[in-house]
Amino acid sequence: MTANNIVEFRQVTKTFNVGREDEFTAIRDITFAIEDLHGHGEFISVLGPSGSGKSTILRLLAGLEPQHPPTSGQVLVSGVPVLGPGADRGMVFQDYTSFDNRTVLDNVAFGLECRGVSKTERYSKAREWIHRVGLNVASDGGKYPHELSGGMRQRVAIARTLILHPRIILMDEPFGALDPHNRYQMQDLLVTLWREVQATVFFVTHSIEEAVYLGDRVFILSRSPGTILHQIEVPAPVRPAAEMQREAEFQEKVFRIRDILEDLESVKKNQDATVT
Amino acid sequence: MSEPSNGFRLFGLRTEIPRWLSATAGLFTVVASAALWWWTTRGVGEERILLYSQLPSIAETIEYFPNLWEADSPERHLLHNTLVSLKRVILGFGLALLVGIPLGVAAGCFAIIRSILAPLILFGRNIPIAALTALVFALFGTGELEKVMFIFIACVAFILSDTISSIQDVGERYVETALTLGATRLQIVFKVLVPLAMPMVFNSLRVLFGLAFGYIMLVEIIQESGGAGGLGYLLNMARRRSRPEIMVIIILTIPIVAWLIDQVLFVVQCWLFRWKYGREAENSGAFRLSRSILSLFWRPANSNSKAPA
Question: Is the dihedral of CA B169, B92, B84, B292 positive or negative?
């Protein structure tokens, strides 16, 4: 049985505009399972050519329309089909989605406010999380999003998600708009927080370095319609991002995956047969 | 081409020019217009390019002004009539807000309500304003109710449709973020969509209020049995008594009043939406003035945040 899987996709296919001229299959026949290990959340990086349905997988898990529901197959979380969005599956987007009318403190406290948690309690928790993502409670807590840099906004987004203790965290290129220096910092922060909260993370990215550094496993999707071509196990991020990503062993892994991706970009569409 | 040494270009694309230059340029237009006015109305009698009955001269207008400003009868008093008109606009517009904004929010959130209201909005937005004056006259006579209902009907469809599009323009990402943070549909409406849409709604309200203030005179002109006052009434009197000065004074008064109202509304907007107009507010003289006035009466506990620029 599958009750032991925190996430499971069973032959999931998503086709948009079924029966119309512009019918389009984003992902086809995706099957995988993430085991629910006690006290350890797995970190899954998702790589693939553009348009291969990486975001579709995330949004199916989040239960967000129009990707949800799947055209066929099942998306299960802890053995139960996903019916819609919920706070047990937090999501961080690439675009900055801090609520512009709320201060940092009120942004981070948003989810608790929706649950009806009292003001004193949610503010004290929010302050704790603002601190944990590396922001200054006293000087940043009262700021509005338009006063924050991109990196700070994503810290707010991460705090706002983690304060709700989701079992699953979905990240859709969250660091895509940041400069390299900021990106390393955010990667280190994410590793630290992830070790503390032990949630299952799905992390979509275009950066192979980022995928290899952060992930326990890297999923590589085929060209559209996406299927999972490879699942590669990679070493854990045991040293800081800027340091570890320079090491020869790490680089070799990155080059191997780059070769696979470049093949995918160049080879023609019909290659369903190569599914491993 | 090198930049001038004092650091701005006269025709720099989308760049700012110094405040003194901006003020001088504006003043130039005022002086030029006044000069044109003076030139076309100089001389006496038939020598003038534009006759007294067509356009009174600057001197004639200024000479007549005290008759309106110090008038014994409130019916002829400029300020009194301006306030009468303003009161009607505020009542009609306020009513339109009470109806238009809640309905607009509902329709912006739910397609079914939008579809139900769509025909009403189509008619309301395209109702010919001249026909509307006849309609409210037929329905409500010539009293205060007629004037308030005229402004209400003229504005409500625009408020509705602007509220709807402001709500719809809030990025879908914000809604999705709220969903993944466990917000319910009602919470998304009141904690995400409404607060994020309101600055846009307020922007269009400012424009509409200015228009409404211009419209009100259309119904004030139809005055069968005097007494109701308003700028339109004054205008009608000017025509009956052949006093073209009154017309000119009213034409000059309206933009000034409209500008004052707009500044007041902008200040209100800055205070309501500090999160959006932080920097813009600091550049506005009206906002800084309002803060200085406010600080005379009220000192916030955390007044160490920002000093006036």
Answer: negative
B252 contact partners, CB below 8 Å, separation of at least 6:
none
**How far does the CA of residue B236 sit from the closest CA of chain A (Å)?**
48
Q: What are phi and psi of A211, to 5 degrees?
A: -60, -45
* Beta bridge mates, A217: A44, A233
Dist CA A98 CA B126 (whole Å): 38
Taking only the tens place, the pLDDT of each residue in B106-155 is: 999 999 999 999 999 999 999 898 899 889 888 988 888 889 999 999 99
Are A111 and B191 in contact (CB < 8 Å)?
Answer: no
A103 neighbors A142 (Cβ within 8 angstroms): yes
B284 and B198 co-located in one domain? no
What pLDDT score was predicted for residue B224? 58
Cβ-Cβ contacts under 8 Å for B271 (sequence gap 6 or more): B290
CATH of residue A238's domain is 3.40.50.300
Residue of A nearest to B197 (CA): A101
Asked if A168 is an interface residue toward chain B (Cβ–Cβ < 8 A), one would say no
Residue contact A100–B183, C-beta within 8 A: no
For residue A261, the one-letter residue type is: L
Is residue B265 domain-shared with residue B304, that is, in the same domain?
no
- A158 close to A133: Cβ distance less than 8 angstroms: yes
Q: What is the pLDDT of residues A129-188, one digit of tens each?
A: 999 999 999 999 999 998 898 889 999 999 999 999 999 999 999 998 888 888 999 999
* Chain B contacts in chain A segment 126-165 (CB below 8 A): 144-147, 157, 160-161, 164
B177 and B284, same domain (yes or no):
no
- pLDDT tens-digit readout, B255-285: 888 889 989 998 888 888 888 887 777 777 7
Q: Are residues B118 and B146 in the same domain?
A: yes
Which residue of A97, A103, A115 is in closest CB contact with B177? A97
State ipTM: 0.89
Instruction: Indicate which CATH number applies to the domain containing B161.
Output: 1.10.3720.10
